[in-house]
Design brief:
Number of helices: 19
Largest sheet: none
Structural class: mainly alpha
Bound molecules: phenylalanine
Strand content: under 5%
Shape: globular
Order of helices and strands: HHHHHHHHHHHHHHHHHHH
Length: 455
């Protein structure tokens, strides 16, 4: 692969990879899971999962991608030609495309809420004096109206597809790397600003305690499985993303150091998010039960902002932060397919971007409308959005990760060994433990996670 198709700097490649890792998983999954899993006790289990399993699997993806210098399918084909191993690469390409189709929709919601915050529409008719229960009702109804609507979700999803197209057309270095170099530092600045605001609210300590008091009695096997799933989702593992991005890493990039940096930054973003959400929610005496997902972000937090001075400013900034987190993730997911189409079908970057993104105008529309106009469509009892989410996240990703471990651990351990120490020029002490985990620990544990979601 020509050097112009590589990331241009160390910072740039870390920013792009972190951009993929930090997404809505950090914002609305992590704090809720931490709270349910016993606060700091969960955090401990989570950190162990990241270090013992997440980083080794990340290293296996990096090694495969950089070793082959091509897309996920091409990488398996290159190292195991004329064998069915290419399926292990095709699986994450398909899964990531499915995920892309609905992640684009959620990213669209964040854009919608950002625009409604800027215009003030979200807070129309609401002020500090509105009683709690009424406020809750208003924002719940507004979320319902928005998400179940037609033009709002559709247009914002389309806007996101267009932004993705714009960035991806510019290429790896001028598009992905450049935008990540700007957006990632900005994201951390925003996180820190919100952290300081939230921690200085009256009653913040109460919320912090809620988030961080370690309750080891809550650590059950189910919580460990949840921590593991969260680690994989948050680090963007099993989707071919890291294989694809690592193909753009220069040969001198130190993989172990990169993996540790990316994981630490990702964890930091998650913990900062906890520091923002818990104190804010506690300070305004809001219902801690609504700590999760869409309701947290689109109902509870607007309630917090409505209670604060400069409502529109904080609200716009927060949804912008969310948009940034979501956007860099969508870009990385889309790149998996773009690079696949480019290599496999020998297309120019331009036509590959079109082939991947244009059909999304139709596909994502199905998910965008699945809470409104299309909510009568049910697959296995689930709406379109939830069905795609479950199929890709709970089944395809774990299977793809197990296959990756078997391939790198048993079929091609030489590549893992070589890439980890840059064929002798970097520290090689971690090769043994990483290989052991990839061969034995990771496949068995992921299998256990898969079993719990099937049974
Ligand atoms: N890692 C992202 C997050 O934490 C999630 C993600 C999913 C990223 C799919 C890319 C692809 O939200």
């Amino acid at each position: 692969m020509a050097e112009k198709n590589k990331f241009g700097s160390k910072i740039g490649l870390v920013a792009a990879t972190v951009g993929s890792a930090i997404g809505l998983g950090n914002v609305w999954r992590f704090p809720a899971e931490a709270q349910q899993g016993g606060g700091a006790a969960f955090l401990l289990v989570y950190v162990l999962c990241v270090f013992l399993l997440g980083i080794p699997v990340m290293l296996a993806e990096f090694s495969l991608g950089r070793g082959a210098g091509t897309d996920a399918v091409g990488a398996y084909r290159k190292f195991a030609p004329r064998s069915p191993w290419w399926i292990a690469g095709a699986l994450p390409v398909v899964a990531s495309y499915i995920i892309l189709s609905f992640y684009m929709v959620v990213a669209g919601w964040t854009l919608g809420y950002f625009l409604q915050s800027v215009s003030g529409a979200l807070y129309r008719g609401v002020d500090v004096a509105t009683p709690d229960a009424a406020l809750d009702g208003i924002f719940a109804a507004r979320m319902q109206e928005y998400i179940c609507g037609t033009s709002g979700p559709l247009l914002n999803t389309y806007a996101l597809i267009a932004i993705n197209l714009g960035v991806l057309l510019m290429g790896v270095r001028k598009g992905i790397e450049r935008i990540s170099n700007v957006l990632m530092p900005l994201l951390f600045v925003l996180l820190l600003v919100f952290c300081s605001v939230s921690l200085s609210l009256p009653g913040a300590a109460e919320g912090l305690k809620y988030f961080l008091a370690p309750d080891f009695s809550k650590i059950t096997p189910a919580v460990v499985v949840a921590a593991l799933g969260q680690a994989f989702f948050s680090l963007s593992l099993g989707m071919g993303i890291l294989i694809t991005y690592a193909a753009y890493y220069p040969k001198r990039t130190r993989l172990v150091r990169t993996a540790v940096t990316v994981s630490l930054l990702d964890m930091m973003a998650a913990v900062l998010m906890g520091f923002i959400i818990f104190p804010a929610v506690a300070s305004f005496g809001l219902d801690g039960a609504e700590m999760e997902g869409t309701a947290l972000v689109f109902v509870t937090l607007p309630e917090v902002f409505a209670r604060m001075p400069a409502t529109q400013l904080w609200s716009s900034m927060f949804f912008f932060l969310l948009l940034v987190a979501a956007l860099t993730s969508t870009i990385s997911i889309a790149e998996v397919s773009v690079s696949f189409v480019q290599n496999r079908f020998r297309r120019s970057r331009r036509s590959a971007c079109m082939i991947v993104l244009v059909p999304l105008f139709l596909l994502s529309a199905l998910s965008a409308l699945s809470f409104g106009m299309l909510d009568w469509v049910r697959i296995g009892g689930l709406g379109i959005f939830d069905f795609l989410d479950t199929a890709a996240t709970n089944f395809m990703l774990p299977v793809a990760s197990i296959l990756l471990c078997l391939f790198m651990g048993w079929r091609k351990p030489g590549i893992l060994r070589g890439e980890l120490c840059n064929y002798g020029s970097d520290d090689s002490r971690l090769r043994g433990p990483v290989l052991f985990i990839i061969r034995w620990v990771a496949p068995l544990l992921i299998l256990a996670v898969l079993a719990t979601s099937v049974l």
